[in-house]
Amino acid sequence: MDSLKIYLGDLTYNTIAVSTESLPINIGFIASYCIKQFGNKVDITLFKYIDDLEKAISESPPDILGLSNYCWCQNVSQEMFKLFTQKNPDGLRVWGGPNFPIDAPSQKKFFEKFQNFDIYVPIDGEVGFSNVVEKALQANSIDRKNNVLESPLDGCIIKNPEGRLLYSLGDTRIKNLDEIPSPYLTGLVDKFFDDNLIPMLQTNRGCPFSCTFCTDGREAVNMVNRFSKERTKSEINYIANHVKKNVHSMFISDLNFGMIPGDLETCKAIQEIQEKFDYPHKLLTTTGKNNKKKIIESIKSLSDSLSLSMSVQSMDDQVLKNIKRDNISKEVMLELAPVIKENNMATTAEIILGLPGETYESHLSTIRKLISAKLDDVITYTCFLLPGSEMATPEQQTKWKFKTKFRMLPMDFAKLSSGKNICEIEEVIIGSKDLNFDDYVKLRMIGFTLWMTNKGVLYTSLIKFLRQQKIDVADLFFNMVEHRSQSPLPIQNIYEKFVQATINELYDSPEEILEKIQDNSEFQNLVDEKAGFNVIRYHHTMILSECMDEWTEYALQTAYQLLQYGGKLNDEIQKQFNDISNYCRGKCHNPLGQDRMNTNPEFTFNYDIDKWLDEILDIDSLDKFRLSESKKINFVLTDEQFKIIHDNIELFGSTTVGYTKALKMVPERMFWRRSN
What we know:
The chain is α/β, with parallel strands linked by helices. 42% of the residues lie in helices and 17% in strands. The chain contains 25 helices and 20 strands. It has a seven-stranded mixed beta sheet with strand order 2-1-3-4-5-6-7, with helices on both faces. It has a three-stranded parallel beta sheet with strand order 8-11-12, with helices on one face. It has a three-stranded parallel beta sheet with strand order 13-14-15. Strand 3 (64-68), helix 3 (74-87) and strand 4 form a beta-alpha-beta unit. Helix 7 (229-242) runs parallel beside helix 8. It is globular.
């Protein structure tokens, strides 16, 4: 008997650069579990790239095609299923992943809308998919498809030959995750250690929180299960020994990294490979939402490559109640601030624009509270409706009177071999009964200004100086938006382009977007980066590459006005501000230019700003750090900084979108010049 031929795909677009750059361990887990269960009875091939899967289906279609379903690959998966059906009408089509409604009426509509699949595996796919494979192996090959679809299977939702949905959704989650053989240690994913993909580590699954905006807020996945410490350590070492030299990052897919027992050992293992292999330079993960002291203890050894994420979403008590959010309080954050700084750790706060009950004023209040808590970075995300979340249910949408539009996911578009143009689309909240569209746009501008100006080390000196002069730092960002007509012309143009892009990316329906991009000129606009990009990251890159000096001058101008209006200026403060200004100018100069290694600005200083910034408790004012004599300082980029940025640009391309993607993989400290 021939082996059952199976293709598994976790697809990414790569028209202009790889858009979903994580190595596909999700389908690796499913494959390794099936091979453990069925041995040589199955022949499994894994796919990441659309072109590779298209070619394989066309030339040698499998018996079963299984594809992952996330918001970034939903439409292209349907196209692959459609192609598969043409090549093998008797083949089984299995879809799985979190991008699936949680209420039965919406699930029925989902099956009606997306008709090119037979079975859905909604949670932890190993058991559900292996049940499909087991039934297929038992069935007569002549009528295998109907045999598999005629009765329920545990962990699956089946559309039977008559079109009726068959449910059997008991608890099929694997508690001891080591029952799933490692995709790394078995060599299953070796071919994906290429020049494009970033390794991903998973040490546990599940989330104890119930956030309504998240697909992991469901009760079904509240229990956290983990892999053994020994296995995790072995995988970390395997990754370090196989990763390409031009890849400097690593994903950790855990939802609350640092908070779960065993995370301290994981951090120690990563630190050991950093010392041995000089990898990874940057870790991309989400740190835990509570137990911050424990998280600090776990991740402090990785402070250069990982920031402490405060996923607060909002600081408004009623909004937090609306989204079932167990949140860390502002007071706890303030209490931890000295400990965080003492351990040389960066902190990032994530907030969401458009949450249920959020108003313009409450959103501004959230920003003020987070800025006053001295967080290093405050990132604003637009709220979007994930089909697998409670917030996306009809009841929630009606209750809050969400106003939604649709937009393309950045870089997620392609021309298929059939000639059809395809892209991925998300539904975003641009208003509600508590928030109008004009306020949405203005808050997006403030979020962009925060992204540019309250990030990493660049303006740390300016912000610290304003705080010591008793200036509310949030007013720096709010005023930059409010008075943008007074900014340098290149900055005015950036703000204007940002607003237009924020409006122009929105459509009334997914069908409108898909129809529009069938026009080859519209599709070419995507290729030419005139549409379909991440608006904040894109304009951030524009400033870094075109007018960083002008942005700095505008930030300094706004700060100076705040000092003036606050009656803070005198001769001494003026001298200190001049030094602060030159320090910022030196740090930010020419971060991405081809000649950046040769354009090293020099300024004369009367104060030791580096030493002042190192003062942990922020008690001593700058006047206590006056130099005995003035000193000239150069601002330079190191060879290491140049190489890491260069390698990432090589990885993703030297276009604006390529730069945007590359900079996401670069530690913030690598952007800015160092005083020498």
